[in-house]
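Components:
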Amino acid sequence: MLDIKILFRAIGSLFLVETGMFLVCLIMSLCYHETDTLAFLYSSLIAFVLGLTLKYAGRNSKNSLSKRDAFLIVTLTWIIFSLMGTLPLLLTGTCTNISDAFLENMSGFTTTGVTILSNIDSLPHGILFWRSLTQWIGGLGIIFFTIAILSNGGESNIRLFSAEATGPTHEKLHPRISTTAKWMISLYFLLTTSCAICLWIAGMNVFDSINHAMSTTATGGFSTHSEGIMFYHSSAIEYVEIVFMFFSGINFPLMYLILKRKSIKMLIKNNEFNFYLFTVLAVSAIAAIALILYSKYPIEKAIRAALFNVISVQTTTGFVSENFSLWWRPFWIFLFFSMLSGSCAGSTSGGIKCIRMLTLVKTAIKHFRQMLHPNALILVRIDHNTVTEDSERSLLAFLFWYITLISAGTFALSAMNVSIFDSINIITSCISNIGAIDGNIYSPVTNISTLPTLSKWVCSFIMLAGRLEIFPILLPLLPTFWKNN
Amino acid sequence: MKIVIAGAGAVGTHLAKLLSREKHDIIVIDSNPDKLVDLSNSFDLLTKAVSPLSIEGLRSINVEKADLFIGVTPHETDNIIACMLARKMGARKTVARADSYEYIEKKNQELFKSIGIDSLILPEMIAAQEIASSVSRSWIRQWWEVENSDLVMMGIKVRENSHILNVPLKNLCGPESPYHIVAVKRADETIIPHGNDIIRSYDLVFFMTTRKYIPYIREIVGKENYPDVKNVAIMGGGMTSLFTAKLLPDYMHVKIIEKDEQRCRELFELIENKNVMIIHGDGRDMSLLQEENIPNDEAFIALTPNSETNILSCLAAKRMHIPKTVAMLDNLSYVSMAESLDIGTLINKQNIAAGYIYQMMLKADVTNVKTLMVANADVAEFNIKEGSKITSKAIKDLNLPKGATLGGFVRNGVGSLINGNTRLQAGDHVVTFCIGNDLSRLSTLF
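Structure:
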């Protein structure tokens, strides 16, 4: 059975990290002399005291953790972290009830980027920065950050790390996990900084460029304006975003190795990256053609709009440069595919991940070959490695639960009088951590504050399930998980 | 020359037999005394039951006086360690048999030299090269090309439809004709033909020619209609099959039929070519072969470890009208039988390995030796040194050994055929054909 002390200790450290996050926002609000200073001060004090208490309570815990406990702890961590994060939102009165505040935080940490706030432009800078920070931290993972910051590579942390990391396989860049984490965060930081500088050059002010950069590299989607990127009406900013959203969708360990070895060959030969590039370009091309033919856009505008919105959806960022629910309607199905597929595993993006989609496509093609040659041994190969039947099975199981969750979520929302088309889009957007919704009433340019209260909890749950790739969150829900045998 | 052969397995035994005829001092060592009894009783060599890895054992056979140490135990690592030990103890040259392709790659040769291994051989790889080249030119049974030139030698089985039958050779080709018939294998006998000899149906004829005349030869031997190979079936998934599949040209579709499922998986991991398909099943199962459409393939290659299975399945393939068959034979006594059953190409790893090692010991600068199993003959290439006997007279005035014939030579990168009036020069690169054991006698001329 789970040693409750490990949980205490893990959450204690997390609260200390969160205290740090609150303090950063506190500094931000002090700089701007705004009303949210006290809220952040109280929040950080509460988090600090609770963190120390929990750490003290868990001081004698074992340093080992079973795989199933790791799943539970990761799920609880994310929930509790988000709950704690509601403090400043509630204390400042940004959100009036816990459902909204929790959804907003969950949307931040899971890098979904869907928001219930309608008055973003008038929010204090501290709160705006808090929202961007949740995305930036959530992009690589809460536990990932804790490991990197606290340099704690114990056995239990490795289990937590693999339970949280996305994608079917997890690469290590260095034999020691905390070093791996540090390298990855350096890359992440580099990417964010370059994005911020580029955005600033393209015409944003310093605060906006930092916030948008954090949100972009995390493939989150929170903005400092209600209209998001559309606020700027700047094609330069859109092009910068196109580039950085695309980069944020690439496998980070792979990107790190390419930078380190200064060879682009690895990227070009990588099957998953090619699939990602191909789908992005193909769907964008279809969008651009549709825009030119049906919406009579000029060519440059069509290409820019197509690239921006398709890349935003496929990298699961969720920025929009225009209301794409007004585009040629049959295009929806391609966008839906992009939503489901997401970008590369090991990036900050959500969705099923390109590597899984690629494996699925190859498995489906393989099946035909197998039918023609029943005795032949045909396996799927990705990047010179054969995919074992075991991983094929777990992929299919993953897909099954993915579809089941989308169906269940859609059912729940439509039962609460949301239209079925909107329900499908909201749930898909949530499970893939996108944020932009291609629906009828809920479109990419609206927020979801008018959703029924209960459905907000459903959305939060679906977001977390998508971010943690389903199994860590579904497993503790099984009765057998709690039986001692 | 003192030669130590470590490992009395198939390759070691064959090599020992071959070398013992050459008046070398051969010592065969193996940790298993049973393997040595037969060798020591029937051949002129010394055997000793010591482990090739034992330092004491190596000392006891005076390995420091050895001119050549050959590691041919079944295990790659044993061979490498034994060679390293022998070299450090004073052996002049070492050869080890490898199991992995990586080890024989050119770029790694320096690494092995530095740890005391002069050369590594991978018999399976050499066998695979031979299979691949014979399948790519399926109408040819034996193919021999001289490196960096356009000279080729090929053995072709002539049948009734050939245009060169029953004509005395002096009428067929003169000194200026574009090809030169260097040898003929008829039934069990290989002959060096002279002007009055004629070619008969079912002879295996060895032509020496230049590349541009290959289509002409194809025409005169009546093989224009012989189908080119596009689909290949390989039975057995051993190392030779693996290398063959990798070496076959990309346009060919290859199916490897292997019984063991685990091995199928390994093969799948190792071969990334999309045109190679791994089939899990028994190559002797006719319904499986039908299902996978093997009877429509143009080539069938049997490479299981079992010679009998290989011969029988090649016969079955012949009955399914697959034009080209290749069988791997471990048992040399089957060679003439398999030959009489009209199996296209016969491959023997021991022979190939032995031929390769054999060249290392000839005094002259032999660059390449291939033993033609079916003809009981060797083809060897020599570089002529300054002042060697062969440059003193024209070929017709030289007293060549009875079983040897000179096919062609390369001078300044241009290949030409040799006739009686040719006078060779130092620096020439000569291709010779020798029957029986005349190779070393011939090598004294160079």
